[in-house]
Design goal:
391 residues; alpha/beta; Rossmann fold; 6-phosphogluconate dehydrogenase C-terminal fold; VC0802-like; 5-stranded parallel sheet; 4-stranded antiparallel sheet; 46% helix
Amino acid sequence: MTGSQNQQGSHRGIRRIALVGLGLVGASFAAALRAAQPDIEVFGVDVDAHTRTSAQERGWTNGAAAPDDPAFERFVRDECDLVVLAVPVGVVEDYFKLLAAWDYRGIVTDTASTKAGIARSAAALLPYPQNYVPGHPMAGSEVNGIDGARADLFQGAHWILCPDAATPAEHFPRLHELVTSLGARVIALPREDHDQAVAVVSHVPHIMASSLVQLACRHADDQQALMRLAAGGFKDSTRIAAGSPELWCGIAFDNADALAAGLCEMQGIIASFEDALAAGDRPRMTALLAESAEARRALPAAWVPSTEKLLEVRIPMEDRTGVVAEVTTIASSVGCNIQSIEIDHITADSAVLSLVLTDEGDVGQLSSQLINAGFSVSFSPLSAKEHTHVA
């Protein structure tokens, strides 16, 4: 993919965004977008007047209004490309109803940490549910609201997108370009798998961190030095427990089934350590610790792609729905990171899906799985200077 192709692709990009919710994630999105793509027009929507004023004063939004302000409807109706719902799960339905009433035909995404309920609501309420692409930035802070927002919140963070078979082919590349411009790295997940996956890597860890803090607090009165000791590594490992109790209570109940299953499995894992202790089984204890240590060491502290090892993957697209969602999900499943994605239209009925991959993941597995899925695939090395997305 050449620089000229990327520039041509940008003309099909997202230029006008209605951003609903200017809390930590929403305001950080606006701040990051202003820094990365200042030409994009962002209209902020929030129930709090002080928050709306603050977002405009900081230059993060071009305008702002309350949800019931006619200016919000005018912006959505006036060639708005994308609506981002950075609001709690419980109020998403209200905005779906507004968008339906306004016959909005652009892309809709969200930032909520659960997807099952929202996806059902989108299918039931939106007149064009195929235009809803669930999203979830895996980034946050213990500081809530716009005062905790910062432009670098998404740098190096994973941002989940969940296209499906009904998603129009152009939607994923447009969202991918937008999200990666903020420094985030996109992972494509089937929406039906999302809630279980984030329960394991986010929701269960939050409950575990809260539990550890409770354990320390129960013993703090008896051992005054304990909380001083907790100011070290313990404080770092339980930082997420300082998050908003109301927010996390909502997340817990929104994802109750997957969270409960994860906590039950976690109890079994803890029990295995307890059983090894009770039995005096040192080899078993060592094996359990070694398994965890090996897995933890395999996680990179900070992953930086090699600009000399880019790979272009070209896939002829048949005239069938869901091809982009299928390909990107396969790429994510084998650990491949898509640096950029573009659709090269050949005729009205055919196109080539062009992916640029960084040096992460199993390219051999990617090739095998794509071929097994019925795709014709070609790979070619790509130098950094051929690809304008790479610094």
